[in-house]
Amino acid sequence: MASGTIDYYAVLGLERTCTETEIKKAFRRKARECHPDVCKDTDAEERFKEINEAYDVLSDPQKRDTYDRYGTVNPQQGFGGPGGVDIGDIFSGSGMDDLFSAFFGGGGGGGGGGRRTRTEGRDMAAQVVITLQQAAEGVEKEIMLSHLAPCEECGATGSVGDEGTTTCSDCNGRGQRRTERRTFLGVMETLTPCETCGGTGSVVKNACDECDGTGRVPEREKVTIPVPAGISDGQQLSMSGMGEAGLRGTKSGDLIVTVRVSPHEFLHREGDDLHCRMILNVVEASLGGTMTVPGLFDDVNVAFDAGIQHGAQVRVRGGGMPRLRGSGSGDLIAHIGIEVPRKLSKEQRAMFEQLRESLGRSSKSPLQKLKEWLTN
Questions:
Q1: Dihedral-angle region of residue 112 (phi above 0 means left; psi in -120 to 50 means alpha; beta otherwise)
Q2: N or C end of the chain: smaller count of CB under 10 Å?
Q3: What is the pTM of this model?
Q4: Left (φ > 0), alpha (ψ -120 to 50) or beta: where does 143 sit?
Q5: What is the number of other CB atoms lying within 10 angstroms of the CB of residue 281?
Q6: Which residues, other chains included, contact 136 with Cβ-Cβ below 8 Å and sequence gap of 6+?
Q7: Ranges under pLDDT 50 in the chain
């Protein structure tokens, strides 16, 4: 369903005056009710996506304000852009069965093909966009991250008090149960997730009301991404432990941030070198000299020899990008273009005529010139 056609408050069963706490509680409640593993309605998966979308918008003060003002908002702006990661993408690469097991501790049972429920947090993906100048200097970028964070109420244990967890007696801690079926081929054995522990192998004695025994809750927070100087477009940074929180205090995943460098108005980057165009007129090209071109931060003086030709390159050592985690910088390479005037004044034409006479015409044919060029 397209953004702007959904009443996000109605999706979560909330009034427009609801608080942040009420939004979180409504999201958890609705997610359990509508998850496809629990709800057998044909539209369960679509409703579950709407719930995630509604939470992403209403839990973000800025998005919520835009939605309240105009009745529409782009719920995906946090992912694939400068903002951060949308909660609908925090389980990227996993199926709906894995999503339920990861978020709710496998409480619904079923699915998974007999696999034990994953307890470690998954990696998450985000993207930041920076300028070429920021890539050269290094910069810190803030993103708003929606993810499963450790539950502060129970200290991520999932249990109230010191009771903790105990080994599941139904599966003896394996997280799986073995069943047998008689078929015309004989007795077939099947492994299925244990319904009692949700495939985790352990049972919480006194589950925390805030996280329902999972040790993690949905959260939005600002995360600062330190981008080092010299980084290239498309490179990725790994923020250890900043991804999805693990189940009941187990290892958290990482946050993988892709850095996109926006194009520069005058400069083109290739590796650590920067390239630019430098246009000369015929007089400047003939006499040589120095011309100023725009650099990353300040103008750069580029010296060129007399008689320089169209298409030549002039290299300014150290005028490029700093090398990532290395010493020194690349070069600035100016590509020469020679501009011939289309119209001349009478005075200019007379000067060019005089110059042509002083230079004289070459008596050599084009074929002779080609032979000399090939033999040199």
A1: left
A2: C
A3: 0.65
A4: beta
A5: 11
A6: 229, 230, 296, 297, 321, 322
A7: 1-4, 75-114
